[in-house]
Amino acid sequence: MERKIKVAFDPPVVDYLDHLAYTLYAENYFGFINSAIEYIDKMVDYITVQYMIKAKSAQSTRSTFNH
Q: Is 10 left (phi over 0), alpha (psi -120 to 50) or beta?
């Protein structure tokens, strides 16, 4: 039985990331606000994928020892 993994960010983290996108734009790290938002979205995707990989690895390790 495969368990589903859900990654959720607390509201303060979401607020911080939203603010970070606007800060990166305002400080001219990005020329367009959409570019800064896409950057943050990619960062969140990376974090989510890495967490899921580690969680699945831990699951498979536990199931190996349970046999």
A: beta
pLDDT tens-place string over residues 20-46: 999 999 999 999 999 999 999 999 999
pTM of the predicted structure, to 2 decimals: 0.73
For tokens 């800064």, the residue is 36
Nearest of 54, 67, 65 to residue 5 by alpha carbon: 54
Q: How many domains does the chain have?
A: 1
Asked, for residue 29, whether it belongs to a domain, the answer is yes
Residue 18, token pair as written in the block:
């939203």
Looking at residue 43, its pLDDT comes to 95
Domain range spanning residue 42? Answer: 11-57
